[in-house]
Amino acid sequence: MIVVLKRGATADMIRKMVARVEDLGLKAHVIEGTERTVIAAVGEERDKREESLASCEEVEQVLPILAPYKIASKETKPEPTVVRVRDLTIGGGHIGMIAGPCAVESEAQILEAARAVKAAGAKGLRGGAFKPRTSPYAFQGLKEEGLKLLAAARDATGLAVVTEVMTPHLVELVAKYADVLQIGARNMQNYHLLQAVGEVRKPVLLKRGPSATIEEFLLAAEYILDQGNQEVILCERGVRTFESHTRFTLPLATVPYLHERTHLPVIVDPSHGTGIASLVPPMCAAAVAVGADGLIVEVHPDPKVALSDGKQSLTPDAFAETMAQCKRVADALGYTLS
Amino acid sequence: MIVVLKRGATADMIRKMVARVEDLGLKAHVIEGTERTVIAAVGEERDKREESLASCEEVEQVLPILAPYKIASKETKPEPTVVRVRDLTIGGGHIGMIAGPCAVESEAQILEAARAVKAAGAKGLRGGAFKPRTSPYAFQGLKEEGLKLLAAARDATGLAVVTEVMTPHLVELVAKYADVLQIGARNMQNYHLLQAVGEVRKPVLLKRGPSATIEEFLLAAEYILDQGNQEVILCERGVRTFESHTRFTLPLATVPYLHERTHLPVIVDPSHGTGIASLVPPMCAAAVAVGADGLIVEVHPDPKVALSDGKQSLTPDAFAETMAQCKRVADALGYTLS
Amino acid sequence: MIVVLKRGATADMIRKMVARVEDLGLKAHVIEGTERTVIAAVGEERDKREESLASCEEVEQVLPILAPYKIASKETKPEPTVVRVRDLTIGGGHIGMIAGPCAVESEAQILEAARAVKAAGAKGLRGGAFKPRTSPYAFQGLKEEGLKLLAAARDATGLAVVTEVMTPHLVELVAKYADVLQIGARNMQNYHLLQAVGEVRKPVLLKRGPSATIEEFLLAAEYILDQGNQEVILCERGVRTFESHTRFTLPLATVPYLHERTHLPVIVDPSHGTGIASLVPPMCAAAVAVGADGLIVEVHPDPKVALSDGKQSLTPDAFAETMAQCKRVADALGYTLS
Amino acid sequence: MIVVLKRGATADMIRKMVARVEDLGLKAHVIEGTERTVIAAVGEERDKREESLASCEEVEQVLPILAPYKIASKETKPEPTVVRVRDLTIGGGHIGMIAGPCAVESEAQILEAARAVKAAGAKGLRGGAFKPRTSPYAFQGLKEEGLKLLAAARDATGLAVVTEVMTPHLVELVAKYADVLQIGARNMQNYHLLQAVGEVRKPVLLKRGPSATIEEFLLAAEYILDQGNQEVILCERGVRTFESHTRFTLPLATVPYLHERTHLPVIVDPSHGTGIASLVPPMCAAAVAVGADGLIVEVHPDPKVALSDGKQSLTPDAFAETMAQCKRVADALGYTLS
Predict the structure, then answer these.
(1) Interchain pair A286, B282: CB under 8 A
(2) How many whole angstroms separate alpha carbon C302 and alpha carbon C113?
């Protein structure tokens, strides 16, 4: 349930209410809105005693949370969550652009990519150091060396680094270098991993699994939120369907559908969503038009020699052109893409 | 194969080449481009003798058509096909807007709808007179009476009428009233029907079947083209996937993917593609941004009382607002939406 | 609603009740069960007056039909429908085996196929004379000539002929030669065609569309039943999913699921359902084990030279071996496969 | 590549060949067949030098492995892998039956379930102690306490315990109690987890992910095999499709398809595959008929009060009846189900 505190509730009043909620065996998540503070009280069991909270003086009202994703729900927090890290702003009308290669391959490659996407206007740098690969015999990433190269690229450009973490015991290591921790589509329901990144105080970019329903997606986010990390960025990256001409089927309706249900920002990955470089620019423009809070795009200095995903990577020139198109659409619709 | 005639080939030369192609047991489709005329020669069998055409004086070259959809392929005709009917223009940078109710219900309803969508800028009026319904016990449309009401709405507004025909023996009747013949998704592979509309000289709006591959979609168009009707408008209206929060999954990447392969115009139906009215406006904007040549949108004067598809129909006000958004996106990207 | 007549209702009483039902603007379908007769009264509108039927002397009770598929529902007729044509029996514990080539190609081919499948124990002969083909340039069947060859094969073997009809105006022609009219998967929602075969007094084999839900499938059957043809055989032939290693995904759970809801018999097509000859025999055995009322299997005297679907056709020897396996499973579970 | 040693190769010869393979920078997997020993040499890079192995005296031939799943492929090991643990035998014509509740709920519940499934003929006991749940607020299992109860049930019945492990750091703990480690569908591509169970010397039951292709499935198995654990049991448990009347769509054709490609045993989970208890018995019979090497079935002493998956759980009586049916089918087809 949501405990809505009266306007002007003091820090002390909030602390006391948290204690009362916890006394009921529930977890208390304090969410400070622009107008008032609410406490989301969630947990396995609920009973009549909980409603006793409604009688507390500092409480304005107690509302049930109907959605199964309690903290992610707009019922709990109607205003959009805005994630800010370095110059990257995602949500609340701000379109955050993240770009870079599929995998970090070398210092020269990641630096060149970082400079190119920065020049085109991106504020975030993507690049895989730990790569989940379908085959155990495929290139698995440069691992910690890759993380160091990403950090160096950040030092050189100021871009926020977005990179994937694949397993709980590596969360600490990846968090040391990354600005945003990415959970890949294959791990969307790796619950121990979700809990582990939920304990970190860095934003998490959560990719939708290729056959996840929207409710499963939001409940995966809830695993992170429930650990106290409130900066979750949802990412639609395509679902698996009978369509085989594209790598996945990219359903942009996810974006407004999620916006109606959650305050979390929603970005789109047209590179994995289509798997074909020539389709990425129009799908970027479409994602901006549909209301996405950001994009994550694969850009490689030389896609032909990429160690992974070359087929879907844009050249720096194509990316610059794409950014210009996206900016025109954003301007036309009143979004900020800077 | 494609027989490319030399520049300045006369009508007589074309006629002779057609005869030679037909002598080889092939069908000849004359396609007049802006620069030169080509003859697409298609049929079940091909052999060496066909290549003899290459030696004819008026022939510049003979090229194989690699795609299985011979006439629909860009190999045969690189320039986009533009369909024009009344004030509705679809293709070649022109975004044609078609709107109206799911079904024609009454004279008052269709007239009110027609006036409203015309006022908002639409150039085509949709409305079902013969309705394919999942249940035999559901409202099946006003049939010929509905066609007459559509024609009256056209007389009152000048809008081009787009309406569905469900079976070969009704093609003549529907064509008497309609400006554009619609083939519904359920009938995308109803080959006798495709052939029947292929014999008419009115544009055909062909909806993609909910589990059709792109190749199947283009080959369905080919059945129409092969009968001599070259005005086929392709319509993406969503595919059936595991996603159940939307009525269908609407894959906008279809639009640029088709544009790379066919000269036929491609429009989008966000109403059936999502099934939820609140998702239609952002998906309209996205469809324009991705490069769609048109939209077909369900608009009902009073969606709450609609006999079918009320849940996905826009009110006239919402449609007017949607048109304004689409226009802003079209302007930003250099498309004409007027 | 279902009007259940008292035991021993006479023909005259039935006639009168039908008249009363029709007076209410409803269609009356008389269904004679083993114990008593019921009248399914279906139509668009229902009101209080209908309940007045309950007060008639000859009526035992009036029950609502909750399922949207009124006549197909087990609520209307709990006992299984058994379809019998020549020696082919489908339903009620009888497993009917239908086999033969994808398409009729020549007299020699269809005769050889018919003799082979007959020798192996099949009672029905499949073979396409009118072939729905994805491409307009592919072999479209021998048409009426093919029907004549099928009839000749029937004369030679006594097998019941099962063949497809694709469009309403050909129903009469096909019905002249066929014992069972097949509606292909592409035409499952071709409602005019369903109504046309509903008017014929020959059994109809209705294939499930590749993306049809079970409710859509049963409502398609309902279009046929609603015209008075009560001999509909449902056929699961695979659905379209992301799986591409098989031609379709064949969900055998459809069989018991349908048996819980409808009295109509359900058969399985493992040839189209898998598209790979080596998978057909084990899937035949599985279909028998799951409770299918029959199988329809592609068998070609020489699959390598088949004009269509050679990849999924069994040789006569493989089919004979498959029949033996199926018989063993049927015997083990108490079904009749003879 | 596969290095096929000559018949009668001694342990010493094998050891030397392994060393030579490793000198080439490849991993050597020794696979002892019934007739001869082969060494699968796998790794990222391959070159000419590898072929030099062919010239070694003890080598009969060196063959490339065409499949991307090197160790899982039948090219590497044509004979079926048989997994034996306690009385449970899976593969090579032996159908292993695993049954039990979704989750361990209490000592009484798991003991009652274990005794019931044992009485019906099962040789393996399933039961979740660590439960991956879609919602963070749902029952997550009894954890180590659950493992202890499973071990107690094994002590009481002799059944082999099959239970899930969700994250690498718990592998050691779960392996302490379990006989077979289960990897759930959500974790099929959790590569660190696959590698962790690959290091254990206990059989692994790997469930197919709901949108995994067959190649992805086999490559996930390859991650385990590549760590040296050769006892991987593949489990088809249904894929996610547009079908919503069943929980998942269960494609039994997976079984023979996999048998053509891999030596690993393949079992089926009709409980998750359908999600509806009444469909489980016929799908069990079908799975046996299609050639499955085993079944894993949810059985609960009282499904109505189950903490999870009650809707798809069989009662002990229904399970006993199902076992009898399966045995009849197995006997009819010459498989051993004891």
Answers:
(1) no
(2) 9
Distance in angstroms (rounded) separating the CA atoms of residues A289 and A272: 19
Q: What are phi and psi of A255, to 5 degrees?
A: -65, -60
Candidates B127, B184, B180; CA nearest to B152 is B127
C-alpha neighbours within 13 Å on the C-beta side of residue C322: 33
Q: What percent of chain C has pLDDT over 70?
A: 98
> What residues in A contact D222, CB-CB < 8 Å?
135-137
How far is Cα A184 from Cα A131, in angstroms, rounded to an integer?
A: 9
Which of B249, B321, B331 to probe the A interface (max A CBs under 10 A)?
A: B249
CA distance D59 to D39: 10
Is the pLDDT at D43 greater than 60? The verdict is: yes
pLDDT digits (tens, 9 = 90+) for B112-143: 999 999 999 999 999 999 999 999 999 999 99
Q: What is the pLDDT of residue A224?
A: 98
Q: How far is CA B255 from CA A245, A283, B237, B252, in A?
A: 12, 10, 11, 6
Question: pLDDT tens for residues C198-254?
Answer: 999 999 999 999 999 999 999 999 999 999 999 999 999 999 999 999 999 999 999
CB-CB contact of D203 with D224 (8 Å): no
Q: Which of C252, C253, C282 sits opposite D256 (nearest CB)?
A: C282
Instruction: Return the SS3 of C120.
Output: helix
CB atoms within 10 A of CB A172: 12
Q: Quote the CA–CA distance of A271 and B159 in Å, as a whole number.
A: 40
Q: In whole angstroms, what is the distance from residue D163 CA to residue A192 CA?
A: 17
β-partners of residue D268 are D236, D295
| Segment (H or E) for A31 | strand A27-32
Distance from CA of A43 to the nearest CA of D (A): 6
Say how far apart CA B268 and CA B278 lie, in whole Å: 16
Contact between chains at C279 and D256 (C-beta distance less than 8 A): yes
Q: What is the pLDDT of residues A32-68, one digit of tens each?
A: 877 788 898 887 655 566 667 888 888 988 888 889 9
DSSP secondary structure string for all residues of C201-246: SS-EEEEPPTT--HHHHHHHHHHHHTTT---EEEEE--B--S--SS
Q: Quote the minimal CA–CA distance from D140 to chain A in Å.
A: 10
> Between A114 and B56, whose confidence is greater?
A114
Give C68-96 pLDDT, tens digit per residue.
999 999 999 999 999 999 999 999 999 99
Q: How far apart are CA C210 and CA D95, in angstroms?
A: 32
Distance CA A40, CA A37 (A): 10
Task: Show the domains of chain A with their CATH numbers.
Answer: 2-63 (3.30.70.1140), 83-333 (3.20.20.70)
Cβ contacts of residue C43 below 8 Å, gap of 6+? B137, C25, C26, C27
Q: Considering chain D, what percentage of its residues have pLDDT values greater than 90?
A: 81
Please give the model's pTM, rounded to 2 decimal places. Answer: 0.95
The token duo for C122 is 């099949």
What is the reported pLDDT for B45?
54
Task: Quote the ipTM score.
Answer: 0.94
What confidence tier does A140 reach under pLDDT thresholds 50, 70, 90?
very high
C3 beta partners: C39, C62
Percent above pLDDT 90 for chain C: 81
Residues of A in Cβ contact (< 8 Å) with C244: 244
Give one word for B164, left, alpha or beta, with left for phi > 0 and alpha for psi -120 to 50. beta
**Alpha carbon distance B53, D283 (integer Å):** 60
3-class DSSP state of A239: strand
Residues A293, A296, A298: CA angle, nearest 5 degrees: 160
What are the chain A neighbours of C242 within 8 Å (beta carbons)? 240-242
Rounded (10°) CA dihedral B283, B284, B290, B293:
150
* Contacts D166 to A, Cβ<8 Å: 190-192
